[in-house]
Input
Amino acid sequence: MSWPLTRKQSLLACGLVVVGAGAAAYLKVSRDVGRALEGPLRTSAPLQLVPLARVEHPLERWGGGEVEGVALTSASLITAGGFGVVDDKGDHGLSLPTLRATALASWRDHSVVGLASGGLFLFREGQWEELRTGFGLLHVRTLLESPGGELWIGAREGLYRTAWGASTMDRVDAAPVKSIALGEGGTVFAGGEEGLRQVEGLRAVTVATPDPWIEWVGVTGRELAVITPLGLAKGPLDGALLPVSGAEDASDATVLDTQLFAVAQGRLLRFGTPGHASEELLTAPARRVFATQGVLFADTARGLFRRGASGWVLVRPRPESFPPGSSHVNALAMLGSRLVVGLFNGGLAVGSFAGQGRGQSIGWSPVPGSGAWGVNALLNGGGSLYVASLRGASRFDGQKLQSVEGGEAGAAFSLAPTPGGVAVGFGQGVLLPGGRFLSAFHGLPGNQALALAAGDQLFVGTPTGLGAIAGNRVAWRVLAGEGKLPHPWITALHLRGEELFIGTYGGGVARRRATKTDPNGPGQFEAFPETAGLKVNTGCLVEVAGRLYLGTEGKGLYRLSADGQRFLPLRLSLPSSRITAILPGKDALYVGTDEGLARLYLPLLDEGS
Output
């Protein structure tokens, strides 16, 4: 039931509306004025080109198959994307610090690339160089060379430009950039999450668009075109941009000469001068479209196609890569002769090996169904695979997923084999074989069981300490305030004989030994000082061929020395320095990262060997 408002209440309500509208208008004007004033305040920073070390031992790597950039140089066709950077000879970017590329261009006939994890890199004289500036790490989304040889850089941090051989880089505008286009007379259009900006000389002004979120911008003669969440829109350079009929679902576009090409729900559309669209016939759904050096390319589910006089030709098949979607590996396991990958923001992917001996290729296929998503751990349980994910605990028999008994108890994070069956670590405690559920209420140091390791006792790592379960009860626990652990946030556990290695998120690694006087008690703890401050990701303590390997967040892969006294970093060209999963395989070590998977053949020599 609603009651009529009094005159006073009505006036008060109207006043609040007016004040709210006035405040919103004031904030908008302030933002627009701030942007307009910011345009002329161009700043510069020193630019230094730092050569990267060449890779001595190339690795096999798998990531995403999508193409994010195409460049033609006099030497090769270069492509870049989730698989890295590839030329006509193969992997072109092994020396780069991470795998996934977000932008690529030809600059003075040299390839220049931006990486998803940050950084801008130039390949010249047979070597990659990093372009380092005083602006800090740039997350580059788009690159464009001007007719005069300047390089325009669109990044999450703003719009930048530099000249070939220059010792400085200029920041032209601070608004984030996803796409850049060049107009007549040196005019530059840059669009991103905060709208479209027109840059002339030292001044940047806002251009009105149907929606302020700009995915792409292009110029065809005297017309300007953009893609927003509302689709494709275009109009005169000095007029209003209006939606293009039939292109409401456009997701990507490019300009070749005076023609506009757009991708809409897998269809590649060509817009001629009158504005009417016709469809380009491809043998696979289109994902992206690129124009470089007067040549048109389209990325599809089959690979990269090139448009020629006789039609479209496949010039670079889709690389061996993960299924479309995430390439952030969070767990690994073998199921028979197949390799199973659990994805951080996805489900399961199965890799099937082809060929014999070293260099076996891997073909990837997704596991259908939604029973597992946000995979945290995998465990081979003898013929079937146990899966811990944000949707609970399930079992994969090689064909389908099925929830395990008690697996609906919320998000699952860890798994461990015990004599009675598989123990599952949930966000609310530990499910033991037989159905017993233990939590902080029963004495564990916390509820969220991020790590499990089973021996004479079942060790449980939580964000607030370490505990142990004997039988069906909590035997002991170690908490943050006791000073025994280098950090209370336990993310990885590994039993090596009678020693328990403990990985923490922020305190490196510690080793626990039981005491003779109290063998079933907490024991004694010893930290590895060289790992102080390291963030160990979940499940990233694995023993391979008698050596313990450690995966870290942003610091790469470490290995325990042969005498067991210290952890030493391994210098390898991994897809990323964020190690998120490790798995021993036959004659190889599989290393998962947030940007893909690498295969390292064993044995790995010690430094100096």
Remarks:
- The chain has a mean pLDDT of 90.
- The CA atoms of residues 259 and 274 lie 10 Å apart.
- Residues 175-317 form a domain with the Neuraminidase fold (CATH 2.120.10.80).
